[in-house]
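look at this record:
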Amino acid sequence: MDDLRIYVRGGTGGMGYPRLGGEGGKGGDVWLMAHEKITLKRLKDQYPTKRFIAGTGANSSIAALKGASGKDCEVNVPPGISVTSDDGKMFGELNKPGERLLVARGGIGGCLVTNFLPSKGQAHTIHLDLKLIADVGLVGFPNAGKSSLLTKISRAAPEVADYAFTTIKPELGIVKYADHKQITVADLPGLIEGAHMNKGRGHKFLKHVERTKQLLFVVDVSGFQLSSLSPFRTAFETIMLLAKELELYKEELRTKPALLAINKMDLPSAKEKLNELMEQLQSPEDYMHSLPVKMIPDVIIKFKEIIPISTHSGEGIEELIECLRKILDEEAEKKIENYQREQLYALHQSEI
């Protein structure tokens, strides 16, 4: 499971004590707690009603004029989730074990201001949306060879077959380098045309892409056809379609660093097709006029590197592994430089 809808309600406050001016206790709050040993499926199995309600505040009494607060309700959830309400309001994200997020406040206890009547706690139906977090996300249509590539470059063992939609859930692999540096690579469920409209597994795929630092486009040098009823797409058209799907789902995705792996270079006539594709990618505007408007992205993705590979023969795999590391290191250095620049600017402004 990668999404779950639950009901949360803060506890009601306790009654005040009018005669002596006593205050009722505050109702408990509902917190989400990121815990690495929980999954959304386990959470659903443990709590089939999917209702989480905090404790009620204690009433004020002669023995205790200030009522005790109600018990908080703490819900363990997996790291890497975003939390939204039914109407789309963003509560926040939980990315690391130990992080916590308040999702429903308890009501205040009865007091002089409220005429000693307590208030109810907040109540929400919220969505827990699990998004993958990885250094590199593999982007490509079914049968492009993403699963085979992940097997080649990492220690993952995804299911591989020669039919579309073999990958039905995100698969994570770890690439290890000689200096013990590690990067995570995610093979994501196959993308198809119309994914931005949630065709196929569209939104399930695209939401995972959001949480990767870098994109690795994987295309078949010979082109792609989903089925006999679908149109055939050349490698160039495939790249344009992939870029368009990402752009239509969320424009920010096109700003992510991207590499391109052109796969299946062991096939006959692959070299000629590669030369044709490289020519098209050098001047894409000259070739896009023949494409349907719906296939043309507003912004052409500029790939950091373009690497011909073969997951069958191993051609280009080592070069690709080194490029993944190089681009991630370059982006990390940019972030550090930008941070330092911002700090110097803030310091300069404070001295003026």
Notes: The CA atoms of residues 243 and 300 lie 8 Å apart.
